[in-house]
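Reminder to self: tokens first, then the designed residues, so the page reads top to bottom the way the pipeline ran.
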């Protein structure tokens, strides 16, 4: 039809019906079969189809001239067009499906032909590989080196595995081509099945699994092809072993009404419910979370199903995840279901793939071997590694090897350990992740396709842990496509090596990545150390970095530095503002330091400490700053430095100086002798000035501990030595001993407090002490206070003639200044100086052991002496005095002191002796007071009886006791209590 009459283009463009009127005038006359009326009008309707934007055809319909062309009529026409379009679509879909089925059939036939052809082609080179390898392995021991025999064994074992796969593919091609050479014979199926199942006993024992075999005798004849039945049983057992890690594998053969029923069940990981319908689908692999190996072609169960069908039987499966799987094979009795020409026919040649040893050997490869799983032992370089000759630059690197193929693991372990690297080999990604977390490797070499956590997931997990970001990861895979490489590199993998690979290439890449990783670690460690030092300087020390442009005067400060100037963090800073806050007394030296550091003739170093007065808070702070100027062409162009607030340090230094001054003044005026000694050198590092008064010699005459021990009374010298030993071990103790003054031979009693001064680590090297002169004085000390020289000389002469040791003072204030450090004695006070009675009143108020005898001329004033007595004098002598009256008054005044001293000595002496005991000696004394013996005290203190006896002798010596009752009395007087002896 012409486009001018029928608007097909318009309908195709708009997908809407088009009306064509007045057909007779256009040269078209139509009549209906029932009426002679001419059709005047027609519609061109589009035939629409889903999936197509434009109509797939057109329907031209003439309308009846005897019916009104209304909406119902138009709707009817649309329904007719829609029904025709649907019918056409269904016809087209059926035709497309037929073509697709034919194409798939042709493709499947081509694939079958290809598998058949390639399988046959593979067998020739495999035969030429297996033959020479078997000849090598058959040679007597010694003819091959150990390394060569190991490599030949690995090659032979994997050649057999490849032959098994080839034969399986060949079996499939034969079945699909209806060329399966089956020979069905009556068989003792129970015995034959039990023999096949028992071949897995050793593998189950090594895997820690229990193998239960229960094959009941079957009375009716069962016809099977021996080779096919062997493949059925061994494939099911191999599959169960692959996915079972604990529990058992059970093989059951029983007779049922439908025939012989074989059940192979396990307690393995199970099959997800969604995958159960596809279990026997060819090439379908179930993604199980755990298996002994990722290896497999995905045709084992499909082959089992085909072999069962050839026997006229059925196979079913039941499974629950984490509980196990059961495969059930039912083979009918008799021969009615079998081809007659195959019953008892000639048996085909036995295939290598049907041998039980091949299945068991492959299953054993899934189990970890003890040698390669430890992988810590070094093996000699294999022949291939020796030929590779790759130089190793990183020795003793630790490599984590991950591969589920045992032979591949052993091969790679030999290559890598031969280069001096330590290798830890594991069989899956989860074990690798645990091993890496247990000990961080230097490089990870992993297969991609593995059970559970595969290589890509392992790489992602390692890269997600910051602890392994610097560890190189190399993946090994049989997938050589570009997208596989891109996917691996996208997971953070450093390299991707495609199988098969050469040893030279593998070792070169591993060595390169180890070297690069070592360089990265070294650089990163150096950077971390540098950053750590800088961060420590800034955060821990409180340093504030800053910069200064000498040309423009621009300063860049941080918030901490602005705070030193008393400014908020956002305050602007310039050169003038910086100078304005410097203390006026320190500004000149700061400006001089600034001139020196910007002088090209100098070293450009700026280092100074100065004070700053806060601009907004007026707080005085000390700042220490260090910087350096950068010069170009003799001109300063930059300055960088760091400032540190040292206010607390300056305050501490001032406090230390003040403390040292207080100590110096105290040491100079105290009557006690302060001393410090170095136990390692034996030197006396410090002796206070009071030493001269007590020991009678200047401090410089006693430079060391040996000199001090020489001054100690011979009877007390051992106790003094022991005291030094005790304080050197950390004890604090009080020891009373006697000294012999070299100047006059006098004996003085010293009470010395020894204390340790531990170093930072607790070691005691320095010890100190406070020595007090506790000699009981009988009034031999007298102190004369007289303003006149004649009066002073006269009084001193009279008292010295009476045997007193006299010290004269020109004023009462001079006496009061050092009264606290004077030995007990009598003060003879001449009242000629105005206000002299103040001396008596202050000494009385201080309760010093310095009674005052006043001398003066009353001039007839009877109350003069009374006032002197009330002020604090114990006696008053009218001038002129006589030596006799003076000595009598002084002696009487010292009588009370003498009595009190004797009383104090009798009370304090036991305490002093007890205090001289060490802690262990006091414990022994307390045990003696409790009535203990050497044996019971030794048991209580954890000592030997001999040691207790030694301590007991020291206790008796220190207490000055000759008998045990005498020691008990001294201890009781000092308040010592018996020890608790409940344990005796």
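Designed residues (984 positions):
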């Amino acid at each position: 039809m012409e486009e001018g009459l029928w608007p097909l283009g318009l309908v195709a463009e708009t997908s809407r019906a088009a009306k064509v009127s007045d057909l007779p005038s256009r040269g078209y006359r139509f009549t209906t079969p029932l009426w002679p009326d001419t059709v005047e009008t027609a519609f061109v309707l589009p035939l629409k189809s889903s999936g197509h934007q434009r109509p797939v055809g057109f329907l031209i319909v003439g309308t009846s001239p005897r019916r009104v062309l209304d909406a119902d009529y138009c709707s009817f026409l649309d329904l007719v067009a829609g029904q025709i379009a649907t019918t056409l679509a269904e016809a087209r879909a059926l035709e497309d499906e037929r073509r697709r089925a034919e194409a798939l059939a042709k493709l499947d036939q081509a694939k079958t032909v290809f598998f058949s052809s390639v399988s046959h082609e593979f067998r020739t080179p495999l035969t030429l590989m297996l033959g020479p390898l078997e000849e090598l392995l058959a040679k007597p021991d010694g003819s091959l080196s150990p390394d060569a025999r190991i490599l030949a064994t690995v090659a032979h074992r994997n050649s057999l595995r490849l032959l098994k796969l080839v034969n399986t593919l060949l079996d499939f091609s034969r079945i699909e081509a209806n060329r399966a050479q089956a020979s069905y014979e009556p068989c003792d199926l129970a015995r034959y099945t039990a023999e096949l199942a028992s071949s897995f006993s050793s593998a189950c024992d090594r895997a820690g699994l229990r193998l239960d075999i229960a094959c009941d005798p079957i009375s009716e004849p069962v016809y099977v092809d021996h080779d096919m039945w062997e493949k059925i049983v061994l494939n099911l057992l191999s599959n169960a072993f692959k996915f079972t890690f604990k529990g058992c594998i059970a093989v059951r053969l029983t007779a049922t009404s439908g025939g012989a029923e074989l059940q192979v069940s396990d307690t393995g990981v199970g099959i997800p419910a969604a995958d159960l319908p596809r279990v026997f689908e060819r090439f379908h692999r179930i993604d199980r979370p755990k298996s002994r190996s990722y290896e497999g072609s995905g045709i084992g169960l499909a082959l089992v199903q085909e072999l069962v069908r050839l026997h006229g039987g059925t196979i079913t499966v039941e499974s629950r995840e984490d509980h196990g799987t059961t495969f059930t094979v039912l083979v009918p009795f008799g021969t009615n279901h079998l081809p007659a020409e195959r019953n008892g026919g000639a048996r085909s040649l036995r295939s290598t793939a049907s041998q039980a040893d091949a299945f068991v050997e492959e299953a054993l490869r899934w189990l970890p071997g003890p040698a390669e799983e430890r992988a810590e032992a070094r093996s000699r370089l294999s022949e291939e590694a020796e030929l590779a000759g790759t130089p190793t630059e990183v020795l003793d690197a630790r490599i984590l090897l991950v591969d589920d193929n045992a032979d591949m693991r052993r091969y790679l372990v030999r290559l890598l350990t031969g280069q001096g690297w330590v290798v830890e080999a594991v069989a899956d990604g989860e074990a690798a992740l645990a091993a890496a977390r247990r000990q961080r490797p230097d490089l990870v070499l992993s297969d991609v396709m593995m059970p559970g956590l595969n290589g890509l997931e392992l790489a992602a997990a390692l890269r997600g842990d910051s602890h392994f970001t610097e560890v190189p990861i190399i993946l090994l895979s049989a997938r050589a496509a570009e997208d596989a490489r891109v996917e691996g590199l996208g997971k953070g993998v450093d390299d991707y090596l495609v199988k098969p690979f050469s040893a030279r290439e593998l070792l070169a890449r591993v060595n390169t990545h180890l070297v690069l990783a070592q360089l990265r670690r070294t650089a990163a460690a150096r950077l971390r150390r540098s950053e750590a030092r800088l961060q420590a300087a800034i955060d821990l020390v409180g340093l504030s970095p800053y910069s200064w442009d000498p040309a423009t005067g621009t300063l860049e400060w941080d918030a901490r530095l602005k705070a030193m100037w008393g400014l908020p963090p956002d305050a602007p800073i310039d050169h003038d503002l910086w100078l304005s806050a410097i203390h006026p007394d320190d500004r000149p030296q700061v400006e001089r330091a600034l001139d020196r550091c910007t002088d090209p003739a100098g070293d450009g170093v700026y280092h100074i400490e100065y004070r700053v007065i806060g601009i907004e808070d007026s707080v005085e702070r000390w700042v220490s700053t260090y910087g350096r100027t950068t010069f170009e062409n003799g001109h300063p162009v930059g300055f960088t430095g760091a400032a540190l607030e040292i206010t607390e340090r300056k305050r501490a230094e001032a406090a230390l100086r003040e403390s040292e001054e207080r100590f110096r003044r105290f040491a100079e005026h105290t009557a006690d002798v302060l001393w410090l000694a170095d136990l390692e050198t034996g030197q006396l590092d410090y002796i206070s000035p009071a030493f001269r008064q007590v020991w009678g010699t200047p401090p410089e005459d006693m430079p060391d501990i040996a000199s001090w021990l020489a001054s100690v009374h011979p009877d007390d010298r051992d106790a003094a030595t022991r005291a030094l030993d005790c304080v050197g071990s950390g004890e604090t103790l009080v020891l009373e001993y006697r000294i012999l003054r070299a100047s006059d031979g006098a004996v003085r009693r010293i009470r010395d407090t020894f204390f340790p001064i531990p170093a930072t680590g607790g070691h005691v090297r320095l010890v100190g002490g406070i020595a007090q002169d506790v000699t009981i004085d009988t009034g031999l000390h007298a102190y004369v206070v007289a303003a006149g020289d004649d009066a002073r000389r006269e009084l001193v002469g009279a008292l010295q003639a009476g045997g007193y040791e006299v010290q004269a003072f020109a004023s009462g204030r001079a006496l009061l200044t050092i009264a606290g450090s004077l030995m007990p004695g009598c003060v003879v006070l001449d009242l000629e100086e105005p206000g002299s009675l103040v001396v008596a009143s202050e000494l009385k108020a201080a309760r010093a052991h310095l009674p005052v005898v006043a001398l003066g001329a009353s001039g007839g004033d009877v109350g003069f002496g009374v006032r002197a007595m009330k002020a604090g004098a114990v006696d008053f002598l009218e001038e002129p005095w006589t030596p006799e009256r003076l000595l009598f008054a002084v002696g009487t005044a010292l009588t009370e002191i003498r009595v009190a001293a004797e009383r104090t000595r009798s009370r304090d002496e036991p305490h002093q002796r007890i205090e001289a005991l060490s802690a262990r000696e006091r414990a022994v004394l307390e045990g003696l007071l409790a009535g203990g013996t050497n044996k019971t005290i030794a048991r209580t203190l954890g000592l030997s009886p001999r040691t207790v006896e030694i301590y007991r002798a020291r206790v008796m010596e220190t207490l000055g006791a000759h008998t045990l009752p005498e020691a008990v009395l001294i201890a009781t007087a000092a308040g010592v209590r018996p020890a608790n002896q409940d344990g005796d």
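Confidence is low (pLDDT under 50) at residues 348-354, 370-391.
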